[in-house]
Design goal:
Helices cover about 60% and strands about 0% of the residues. The protein is built from four helices and no strands.
């Protein structure tokens, strides 16, 4: 029979191992040392990639929440499942860092008169697809 000491020990172990289900955050720096030498195409390309990554992180968080729900239900049969819940805010922190990086990229694009952030992103995506935007192949000045 489980006593209160067993339950207290299980609760303590759960708190200690609560982070086992998550992954290490990969936080993007807001500024990089190569920012000064990046071309308009590089800046707009990085901006487009970051926006796509933010969307992927949102989907990753939803998947983790779905898995957590299954682990909680499975914990009724196998109590150790509770140790592998992903209770981290890794995706949120990564997305916030990417938003801050995108703000910096937008500032750099505006400072270099690259043709506006929206047009530049569209042009970068068009250039990677091989299509033309406004008579150009996505090349910014």
């Amino acid at each position: 029979m489980l006593t209160w000491k067993h339950w207290a020990g299980l609760a303590l172990c759960s708190l200690i191992f609560a982070s086992c289900g998550g992954r290490v955050a990969n936080i993007a720096p807001e500024q990089r040392s190569v920012d000064a030498v990046l071309s308009c195409d590089h800046l707009s390309g990085e901006l487009a990639v970051n926006k796509k990554k933010i969307d992927e992180l949102s989907g990753e968080r939803q998947t983790a929440n779905d898995h957590n729900a299954g682990k909680i239900a499975g914990a009724v049969l196998v109590p150790t499942y509770i140790l592998f819940l992903d209770l981290s805010d890794t995706e949120r922190r990564e997305a916030e860092a990417l938003v801050a990086r995108n703000d910096e990229l937008e500032r750099l694009i505006a400072a270099r008169s690259c043709g506006g952030s929206g047009n530049t992103v569209v042009a970068a995506e068009a250039a990677s697809a091989g299509t033309e935007v406004n008579g150009t192949a996505g090349n910014a000045p």
